[in-house]
Write a structure and sequence with these properties.
mainly alpha; Rubrerythrin, domain 2; Citrate Synthase, domain 1; Cytochrome p450-Terp, domain 2; three-stranded antiparallel β-sheet; about 50% helix; binds acetyl coenzyme *A
């Protein structure tokens, strides 16, 4: 294949270099397009075919259903890794040694304490507030209590690395506390820090569910399930929330502010909010008598805004490897916990119908990561409204790793072009003068 791409506009030919990634993906480098053509640009709503950056973090092949973090397959990581190991891998590029992992965990633990005034802000939210709104606000508020110095300085990389490391362990230490406290507040439980002698994932669960005057008993099935879910959500290259984090950070806004923006982007039902939307949809189908065919018909009817939530993906056009793992885990977790959930059968029924339905087959619509995750969260005792906040906890390493990569490469500020389609010039006439 030629390493050049040729574009012809009005009979004039222009050459552009191509770039090949380590998995042989080819991109056309159009960074000189405007200057050589005298102002021609590209248009690609939703960035369906636009690469925004080069990245060494996550590889995915949507046609083959492959997902790898720093070269390691999602199947192996979900089966064998610890979430904190994966976190370290995504942020720092290599798996940690035992010493590095222990130090990382102890640095995170030393940063869990949240300022008392943050408690007051949490108290000021109504109980009905959505956890994602609370979490995004509190994450942004952390900036005020941790005056950040994570601006990447081209002059003093070492000092910057140290300041950034401190903020990374703060994010990983404090955000789980904020998620757990949001749940505790909803449940009318006093806020506490769990038990710092526990593992990272174990303590998230203890902080969420520990009750006063009751002995907290750790359930290993639940710990393993959460560990797996967090790993499966840890990064997914340039998705909506990660692109948001990178673009906010590209203005040199700090890490807390960028992650707060990522949390807001994740909230929407077309992205991370799908896990809540799926469960609500499955419940509604159950309440309506369990007629999956009726809802399949609604999803296919273009005059009906209903979509089959948890189905379809921008990049996976064969299957979502995370969904495969989660489907098996849902069966195992429900069995191990002795939970019988009729909506699991409704979910499987919908999937089976979709797999042979020409509408879904032709459009390559398969269950995504969020189709079965909510069923596991619910079996673990996590309320539906908290599902997307759990996703945010899993996505923290990805957001941090991608933010760090973007800043240390000194990427330019994100600023797309547009094609203006509004009025041409018209003279102004005031109604007040
Ligand atoms: N139900 C019914 N039809 C669908 C669905 C669905 N869930 N998803 C896509 N389609 C149809 C579209 O109507 C469109 O049909 P058309 O070609 O006849 O117009 C076609 O499939 C392509 O869909 P687009 O919306 O163009 O695909 P896009 O890549 O823009 O959207 C998205 C991907 C947002 C994930 C979409 O499939 C969707 O809305 N799914 C449901 C929400 C969801 O589960 N989101 C979570 C994604 S995973 C994650 O972010 C963690």
């Amino acid at each position: 294949m030629s390493d050049k791409a040729i574009l012809e506009i009005n009979g004039q030919k222009y050459e552009f270099p191509t770039f090949k990634g380590s998995e042989n993906e080819v991109a056309i480098d159009i960074s000189t397009l405007r200057s050589v053509t005298g102002g021609v640009t590209t248009i690609d709503p939703g960035f369906k075919n636009t690469g925004s950056c080069k990245s060494e973090i996550t590889f995915l092949d949507g046609e083959k259903g492959i997902l790898r973090y720093r070269g390691y397959s999602i199947e192996e990581l979900a089966d064998k890794a610890d979430f904190l190991e994966v976190t370290y891998l995504l942020i720092f590029g290599e798996l940690p040694s035992k010493e590095q992992l222990d130090k990382f965990h102890s640095d995170i633990k030393s940063e869990t304490i949240v300022d008392d005034d943050i408690r007051k802000i949490l108290d000021a939210f109504p109980k009905s507030a959505h956890p994602m709104g609370v979490l995004s606000s509190l994450t942004s508020a952390l900036t005020a209590f941790n005056p950040t110095n994570d601006q990447v300085s081209n002059i003093d990389y070492e000092r910057t690395r140290e300041a950034l490391y401190n903020n990374i362990v703060k994010v990983l230490g404090k955000i789980p506390v904020l998620v757990a406290w949001t749940l505790r507040k909803k449940n009318g439980l006093p806020l506490d820090y769990g038990d710092s002698s526990l593992g990272y994932v174990e303590n998230i669960l203890k902080m969420m569910f520990n009750k006063p005057n009751e002995v907290y008993v750790q359930n290993q099935v639940v710990v393993n399930a959460l560990n797996k879910l967090l790993i499966l959500h840890a990064d997914h290259e340039q998705n909506c929330s990660t692109s948001t984090v990178r673009i906010v950070g590209s203005s040199h806004a700090g890490l807390f502010a960028s992650i707060s923006a990522g949390i807001s982007a994740l909230w929407g039902p077309l992205h991370g909010g799908a896990n809540q939307a799926v469960l609500e949809m499955l419940e509604a189908i159950k309440e309506d008598g369990g007629d999956t065919k009726k809802y399949m018909a609604k999803a296919k009817d273009k005059s009906d805004p209903f979509r089959l939530m948890g189905f379809g993906h921008r990049v996976y056009k064969n299957f979502d490897p995370r969904a495969k793992i989660i489907k098996v885990a849902a069966d195992e977790v429900l069995k191990d916990l002795g939970v019988e959930d009729p909506i699991l059968d409704i979910a499987k029924g919908l999937e089976n119908e979709a797999l042979t339905d020409p509408y879904f087959v032709d459009r390559k619509l398969y269950p995504n990561v969020d189709f079965y995750s909510g069923i596991i969260y619910r079996a673990m005792g996590i309320p539906v409204e908290m599902f997307t906040a759990m996703f945010a906890l899993g996505r923290l390493p990805g957001w941090i790793g991608q933010w760090k990569e973007m800043r240390f490469r000194n990427e330019p500020i994100g600023r797309p072009r547009q094609i203006y389609t509004g009025s041409t010039y018209r003279p102004f006439k005031s109604v007040s003068k």
